[in-house]
Every structure is written in C-alpha cells, then in structure tokens.
C-alpha cells in the first residue's frame, strides 16, 4: 500500500450531473472482464494497444453496452501504474521462490506492465479511449476481497504490505467464505472493520476517479468475507459509512466534470445473505448510495437469485437491478440453452439488464491454467449470445434449458449447501423447488412454435418405485401414467421424464418426495425443463451426468508427447480375460516424488525439486526370478537419483515382489544450512485404472477414529475438487454434524467388482490429499520432516498392495506393515 495525498470526502450530494455516455432506458448488457484473465497476462513480447484491448476488441459488433475492467489481480496488487496499491511485480522479492503454477503468467504481467509504464502508457487510459471508439461505456471494478492469494499456487499476487500488516487481515480468524484459507489455516482477506482498510480503498477510488470512466463497481461477491466471523452486524454501519463517503466523492467528481458517473455494487443473491455478510444493501438503495445492483452467487451459474427482493427496492428509488450470469455450470456442459433461459427468466422478472461475469476466462475453448490458454477465440455459439442475448425475437425462439442448480462444492442442501441441489429425496413429505420461466409457453404452444417440452428429473443412489413417488407440478399430481420411468446404469439412477409438463411463464412449483413408509430414496440429482423450438442450437441430451461432471467440450484437437515422468505400475487383478494373463486392465502412474520443498526457520523456501525438473534416470538394480508373458525377467529393484548442486540428493527405490511394491525415499542435505522443514508430494494417479478409478466416489476410503469414511462423505475443496486431511485433526465432512478425526494416512480403494482392495500408504505420513479431476484422479499420502542438518540423510518407506477380500482385511494388512521395524 503506497500513500498518496489525503482526499476529503464530503456528505452525499443530492444530484447527478447529466452528460457523458447516456444510460438509456433499454436493458443494459454488462461485460465484466477479470483483470487476471486479461491478455496482458498471457502475451510475451511487445505489448501493443491491441494486446491491452484484446477483450474489449472482441466485443466490437456485439450488443454489450458496458465494459467493466478489473485492474486488481491480488488483494492489493494491480496491473496499472497505481500510486496507492502495489504494481504487479513490485510485490515479488525473488521470482525463484514463487510457486510455478502461476509464475509464468505473473512474470508476464509484471514485464508487460513495466514495458507499458516505461513508454508512458497506462492500460486504463488505453481501454477508456478504445471503449469510447466502440460506443461502449467504460467502468472500473474492484474485487473488494480478492482471496486467491490464500492458496500458495497464487502467491505471485500476494501483497508485501499485507504481509507486513497482519493486523489489517483476518489471519487465523478467517471467514467460511475464504474458501482457500483452510489449506494453511490463514487468510489474507482484508478486515473492513479496520479504519485503515476502509481509508485505503477510499484513497484508491479517489485515484480511479482521476481517470475518464463512466463508473466504479464494488464487487463484494469476490469475496463476501468482509469481516471476521460474528462481526458482520457490528461492521455493517462501518461499511455503509464507507459507501456513503465514496458516493460523495463520485458525485463531486461528476459535478466537477459535468458528466454522469455511476456507482455499482455486486452483492450476494438475497437480502438475507447480504445482511449476513455485513452488507446493508436495503439502506444503500433507499439512501440512493448506489445506481446499479447485481445480486449473484459467487459459485458459477446461478439461475435462482432472489431478484424480486431487490427489484421491489430498486423500482422505488430508481436503482437498476441486473441479472447476473457466470456461464460455467456445475454438472452440465455450458451452452446457450442455459444462458438464454437465464436471460429470459431475469428480464421477465423485471431486471434492468444482464451482467456477464467471467465470460472471457470461462469461454468454452479456454485453458486457464496454461500460459496463453484464455486467448482462444469465442465459439460461434458464444458470439451469438454476445450479439443476440437481448434481441427479443432471437431470445423468444431460442432453445432453452431451465434448471435447478447444484451447490458448487457438491454439498447437499441439508448439509449447508448454498443451492437447492443436491438434496435427499424425503420420505413422508415433499421437497418443493421453484423455477421461474420467462418463455410464453402457452402462446408458443398455441402458435405451434414448440417442437417439444420435457421436464426431466434424475434420482440417484436409491431404488424407489413409481408407486412410492409423490410428484406434483404446479399443484397437479403426476401419476405414474403421466411420466416415463427409466432405470439407468449405474444401479440406483432413475430418469423421470414428463412430456409437455403443465408449466407456465412465471414462477413454477415442483414437489418431489416419497410416501410415508417408503424406504430411503437416495438423492434428487437434477431437475431440468428442456424447451425445443427447433432452432439451430438444439441439444440432444441435457440430463445431468451421474457424478455431476460437465460433458466434454470439443475444441481443436492437439497431441503432446513427453518423456516418461513417472513409474508405471500394472495391476494384475481383476483379470478381464478367462485364461491366466499378465496383461492387466489397470495402470497406475506414480510421480515419485511429484515435488519436494525445503524451508528455513522463517518459512522461506530454500529449494524445490519436482518431477518436471528430474532427469528420471531410473535403472534396474536387480531382476526377479519370475518372467513376464514375453519371457523377460521382471524388474525387482529399481532406483533413481537426482542431485541438486549445493542443495540436496534425492534418491528413490522401488522394490517389487509378487505381494506388494515397497518404496523408499532418501533425501540428503548437501547445503551448508539446516533445513527446518521438508514437505513432500507423492502422486498416485488412477486415470488409467478403470477398476480403481471410482467415478462415483463411493469406493475410496480414509480411516477415521470412527471407522472408514467414503470419498463422497468428504467436503471437497470448492472449484478445484480437492481434499486435504491431517492425521489427528477433524475431517471436513459434507455432514457438518458428524465429527470424525483422521486416524491414518493410508488410502484404500475397493475394486469395481468388490473383490479386491488397493492400499497406498507411507509410514509416519501426516497428511492425505485427493484430487477428483479426471485427468489425474490422484491419491497422496504425504509427510513433513523437520530439522535436517547439513550432511544428514532422512528416509521414508511406503507401500502399495492389492488385498483380496474386505476393507477390514486390507486395513489389518496395512497395520501389520506399519508395525514392522523400519529397514535401515
């Protein structure tokens, strides 16, 4: 945080000065461009005007009326020549210490910003000029609590000022909305109860008001953790005072320039959630402190914001309320059927326009984790939405998919999920869902414009019968002869289809449950209304996938070839042929290790070793007596060694027997300083092991102090679908009422035919980690060593085996292995 001259903020002015870009009565079409996804972060070389304006240039010829640009990439790090915050790159002491995940993009941003500043350019000024040329209003938007920096992968955007002033942050007392904080037990989120934080942002916005801009937006949805837990209500008046002072500064600037400058906010999707976050949006609207309000959930596509609550307030005070769309949809392939349905619903409810968030970085062909990966062109489908979303004629006859949304973190509605689905199919009562339809279904049917209309409900993890189901649509009981009932694989999945359901424009009620006395019915997995007008954008199947995964996105095909970077481990059982064979159906890839990181006593990383830097020079030390099907003696002992000059020797051994694989890792300190902490990551990938992949998360288990815990019971990390657990600490469970402590660092996977159990473990490991991503589907058993002096060597032992029989038998075998004396 840099200091600037003090700014005086007066009382709220009573008028808005006309002039500048006009805000017409027709619906607004807002496009929010995330600063972290901007082309400036994905280009090397000369940073031209076209590079800086890339996302804006893509909107030429579309219906977009307002372009919101976010210059903040971290909690206090920016990509313009600020004199208040920190400029990207100034926050980095040593690029070698930056996590490699986002290091390349971060360095590109820093280099490109420095290049612009050295030649006297400013990206905000360049974008403002270009927007005016295109006839699009230009806004600056600020993520009021950008918390990606809580995750070490994004340490490149961490603020030096924040690290020097922890008293201004949440720290250990972090808010549940700080979704990355549990990884380290610490959050860099600003604490807005601190006067210094509020004054800092007032000074920042005073700097923004020096630019030619049509407005400023405060984005409280990224992230709604403004105050420490329990301090939200006491903090609400402080936040209102903050917005009041900013409103005064905006009005004073508008009057001085004799132009219109607006103030917008993006807030949680209901008045209740706003209050819980310390945002008194009702007061802000009633006092005329804001001009635009966009109620949105923070987690991907949300067709169910409580717009009417905000619209009732906004209409009385002349405040515009927008319907927000983030295109990525949990459980579905994102497409125009969903987004056109959302637009139709929002505008029917009375929204004053549409607000797109992350439409650029979540474009269909984007690969956000790759350098340059977001610079793919929009598809024809995406361009059509940008051009025609507000065109009544196109919107009227476009195919739609109205849906009840899923919790982004995969939690059940009964277990603190923030969306209606997933939820349990109740017994003895019904669960009601509401769906707001914007299409004139009766008129379309009358004029025979609808080719088909289908309400599709999927159930899973249960086996109810049609006679047990209580099913109502808008008060009309749906008897079994009113719908199609289809059982699908895997067992327990049921698809219910109602053709031409009795649904109408406006709010619709759908009730589902089981009659009293029925068995437990499993989960309600999806509820979709498919309307097919026969437009070119027709889709053939919109039922949510069983595991809630998006369908594949087909882009330009590419092939890549790499030198082998892992051990390949074949599993002989289960066999998929009748005769004896060594040719397996399952292959595990083992990155041994994936990484090793060493730190000094102050927590600074001294060096990092990873599978990407290893030579992978494995050699066979000895052969077994047993031969493979090809007549070649099998490998018994294999070893690999890497030397990091002046740092460490990393030595690995894998020893095979017909019963198991034993692993040994040795790390020798070759440096002249003690290593206070050494952290490892060993990645066992199941992608090519169909019998152990566990697509439905029901056959992978941890061991707690109260027995085995299945993968599906664990609350995986939002967005990235990762889970961390520490031995001796409580597990993060979907069922928040259940308390179980992780007892072992071993992981167990039951084969698909339930005859075998795979066990992977390291002796004295302290942490488990799992990633559900299909490309790796990996298991980790990790450990942390402390205090390795120069010249000393540490060693660790691991095991991998397949046990025929039950989980209990596999666990007993693991305990027997664990209790054996260590090999020296």
Number of DSSP strand runs: 40
CATH class of the largest domain: Alpha Beta
- Judging from the principal axes of the Cα atoms, what is the shape? globular
Quote the average pLDDT.
88
Q: Taking Cα atoms only, what radius of gyration do you get, to the nearest Å?
A: 29 Å
The CATH architecture assignment of the largest domain turns out to be Alpha-Beta Barrel
**Intertermini distance:** 53 Å
Name the poorly predicted regions.
2-21, 535-554
Strand order of the largest sheet: 11-10-9-8-5-2-1-13-12
Q: Please name the CATH topology of the largest domain.
A: TIM Barrel
Total number of helical segments?
A: 15
Can you tell me the CATH superfamily of the largest domain?
Answer: Glycosidases
By helix and strand content, what is the structural category? alpha+beta
Question: Any key phrases for this structure?
Answer:
disordered N terminus; nine-stranded antiparallel sheet; Beta-galactosidase, Chain A, domain 5; Jelly Rolls; 40 strands; 15 helices; TIM Barrel; globular
Care to describe what's here?
This protein is of the alpha+beta class. It folds into 3 domains: 369 residues, TIM Barrel, CATH 3.20.20; 120 residues, Jelly Rolls (Sandwich), CATH 2.60.120.1200; 236 residues, Distorted Sandwich (Beta-galactosidase, Chain A, domain 5). It is built from 15 helices and 40 strands. The strands form 7 sheets. Strands 11-10-9-8-5-2-1-13-12 form a 9-stranded parallel sheet. A 9-stranded antiparallel sheet has the order 27-28-29-30-40-36-35-32-33. Strands 24, 25, 26, 31, 34, 37, 38 and 39 form an 8-stranded antiparallel sheet that branches. The longest helix is centred in the first third of the chain and has 26 residues. The chain starts with 27 loop residues before the first strand and ends in a 5-residue tail after the last helix. The N terminus is likely disordered.
